[in-house]
């Protein structure tokens, strides 16, 4: 395994990165299928749930790229291996997978995920080597895969570390990937968009800036002198419309060492914004990388993960569900949702 120099990253970020990294590497080992597992017994970062009406099944994926299945959100079976990559591409033979998402579009299913090749370095910034990492899209005719490569071998520039790509069809009826340009290179993480081809088989043109991490009024960290500044991290964008038609975006950063999720709203109602950030986080502390989905009964839920120290120095990430009200101009997060109760 190649050793990564993370000395410039504050301890909380280093710990979170290490958890993600190890989860991805664990995909090298043979999968062991588990049955009837309660949601809170699953260890998973960046949980994303597709409620597929055609199969009356919930499909959950996330960092690591494995797939879990459930009929009721209460108990799950998995993880299934569903991702197939071109091992001769830039990803290499054993890419690390982060933040996988499943989206149904025009009768097919698409897996938006972040792939990292730890063997390839693209840059060194402030003494920190940066691996080849990028958001990418795979396709399947079925929600449980297999998800395979399409036409384009790259969607985003090879010299930029990008991550956490998500999907949105804007008011111009064109499909877009919205993704993070990682702070490790630009030192002020961004969220950007890039147009996708009509069949999502590649990208069109160049990426466009939506906003920077420094635009956040709530995220915080300390600089080398101890001064409180904005946090550099942009993480986990997810787009939604309220019932009034207002376009919003969930995204996550940190308040010092606490993983925290905020929300921003587009004044134009399109991805181009401008984006106005709520002054306070939208979820309680220690929850983030959220997404929204409706149950088969019509209840709107938010899927997020939290961090917990099971043993000294051992942090695990646990999926959670929250009830959400989108009836007004602002998303309101309610109580935690317990399936089956």
Quick structural overview:
With 341 residues, this protein is mainly beta. The chain has helices at residues 11-25, 183-186, and strands at residues 34-38, 48-52, 57-61, 67-70, 75-80, 96-105, 108-125, 128-140, 162-169, 175-181, 190-196, 203-212, 221-222, 228-229, 235-241, 247-255, 258-266, 275-277, 287-294, 300-311, 314-325, 332-336.
Please tag this protein with its features.
341 residues, disordered N terminus, Tachylectin-2, Chain A, 2 helices, 22 strands, mainly beta, five-stranded antiparallel beta sheet
Secondary structure layout plus pairing:
Elements: H1 11-25, E1 34-38, E2 48-52, E3 57-61, E4 67-70, E5 75-80, E6 96-105, E7 108-125, E8 128-140, E9 162-169, E10 175-181, H2 183-186, E11 190-196, E12 203-212, E13 221-222, E14 228-229, E15 235-241, E16 247-255, E17 258-266, E18 275-277, E19 287-294, E20 300-311, E21 314-325, E22 332-336
Antiparallel strand pairs: 1-5, 2-3, 3-4, 4-5, 6-7, 7-8, 9-10, 10-11, 11-12, 13-14, 15-16, 16-17, 17-18, 19-20, 20-21, 21-22
Textual characterization of the structure:
The longest helix has 15 residues, at 11-25. The protein has a single domain (11-336), classed as Tachylectin-2, Chain A (5 Propeller). The chain is globular and about 50 Å long. It contains 2 helices and 22 strands. By secondary structure, the protein is mainly beta. Helices cover 6% and strands 49% of the residues.
CATH topology: Tachylectin-2, Chain A
Q: If strands are numbered along the chain, what order do they take across the biggest sheet?
A: 1-5-4-3-2
CATH superfamily: Glycosyl hydrolase domain, family 43
In the predicted model, the low-confidence regions spanning at least 5 consecutive residues are 1-30
- Categorize the overall geometry: globular
Give the proportion of residues in helices.
under 10%
Q: Class in CATH?
A: Mainly Beta
Strand-pairing-aware structural class = mainly beta
Q: Mind summarizing the main beta sheet?
A: 5 strands, antiparallel
Instruction: Please identify, by name, the CATH architecture.
Output: 5 Propeller
Mean model confidence by pLDDT:
92
Question: What is the number of beta strands?
Answer: 22
């Amino acid at each position: 395994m190649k050793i990564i120099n993370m000395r410039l990253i504050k301890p909380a970020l280093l710990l979170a990165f290490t958890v993600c990294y190890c989860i991805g590497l664990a995909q090298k080992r043979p999968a062991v299928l588990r049955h009837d597992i309660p949601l809170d017994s699953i260890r998973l970062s960046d949980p994303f749930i597709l409620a597929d009406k055609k199969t009356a099944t919930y499909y959950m994926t996330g960092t690591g790229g494995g797939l879990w299945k459930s009929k009721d959100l209460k108990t799950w079976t998995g993880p299934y291996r569903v991702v197939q990559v071109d091992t001769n591409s830039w990803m290499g033979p054993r890419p690390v997978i982060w933040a996988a998402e499943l989206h149904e579009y025009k009768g097919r299913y698409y897996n938006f995920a972040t792939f990292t090749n730890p063997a390839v370095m693209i840059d060194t910034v402030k003494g920190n080597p940066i691996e080849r990492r990028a958001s990418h899209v795979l396709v399947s005719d079925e929600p449980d895969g297999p998800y395979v490569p399409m036409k384009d071998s790259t969607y985003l520039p090879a010299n930029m570390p990008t991550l956490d790509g998500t999907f949105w069809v804007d008011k111009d009826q064109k499909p877009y990937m919205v993704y993070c340009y990682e702070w490790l290179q630009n030192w002020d993480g961004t969220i950007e968009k890039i147009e996708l081809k009509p069949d999502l088989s590649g990208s069109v043109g160049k990426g466009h800036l939506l906003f920077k991490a420094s635009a956040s009024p709530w995220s915080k960290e300390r600089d080398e002198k101890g001064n409180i500044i904005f946090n550099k991290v942009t993480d986990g964008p997810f787009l939604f419309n309220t019932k009034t038609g207002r376009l919003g975006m969930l995204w996550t950063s940190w308040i010092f060492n606490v993983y925290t999720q905020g929300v921003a709203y587009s004044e134009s109602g399109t991805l181009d914004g401008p984006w106005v950030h709520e002054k306070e986080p939208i979820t309680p502390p220690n929850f983030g990388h959220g997404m929204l989905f409706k149950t088969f009964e019509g209840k709107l839920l938010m899927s997020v993960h939290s961090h917990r120290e099971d043993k000294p120095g051992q942090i695990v990430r646990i999926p959670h569900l929250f009830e959400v009200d989108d009836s007004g101009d602002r998303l309101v997060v309610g109580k935690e949702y317990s399936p089956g109760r």
